Amino acid sequence: MRTRKGSARTQARRRLLKRAEGYVGGRRRLLRTAKETLIRAGVYAFRDRRRRRRDFRRLWITRLSAAIRQRGMAYNTFIHGLGLAGIELDRKMLSEMAIHDPAAFDAVVAEVRQAAPRHDAVVST
Predict the structure, then answer these.
(1) 37-92 pLDDT, tens per residue?
(2) Whole-structure pTM value
(3) What is the domain range of residue 47?
(4) Which parts of the chain are beta strand (E)?
(5) Does residue 120 fall inside a structural domain?
(6) Per-residue confidence (pLDDT) for residue 53, from 0 to 100
(7) Angle (nearest 5°) at CA 110 between 116 and 122
């Protein structure tokens, strides 16, 4: 006797439509439309997981740049000075520190200021 896909196909359809809950109209009810929508949603999710990291890094850099500029220093000089001073705090920690603990951030800036070379100093040849 040949086997038919009855229950397996119904289960697969139910699984797929379960994932499409919350979508509007045919995107929730119709199998082909729901499948297309879920594929597209997956592509967007994959892309945006990577995008989120980029966006947060941009936010931290913007916050840091503003906080450093208030203390009379340029962002690139500050980042270079961090390396020279041997401070291994990342941009996320530094931006959080600038917002929630300005005193500690001022201490970091002071250390960086000592370690970073002065760009406005005239070099004699």
Answers:
(1) 999 999 999 999 999 999 999 999 999 999 999 999 999 999 999 999 999 999 99
(2) 0.75
(3) 7-115
(4) none
(5) no
(6) 97
(7) 35
pLDDT category at 115 given cuts 50, 70, 90 is confident
- Tokens linked to 113: 């200021």
Domain count, the chain: 1
Q: What is the dihedral of CA 24, 29, 33, 37, to 10 degrees?
A: 50
Minimal CA–CA distance to 91: which of 70, 67, 71, 117? 67
| CA–CA dist 98, 96 (Å, integer) | 5
Burial of 40 (0-12, 13-18, 19+ CB in 10 A): exposed
Q: Within 10 Å of residue 62's Cβ, how many Cβ atoms?
A: 12
The answer as to whether 1 is a domain residue is no
Amino acid at the residue 90: D
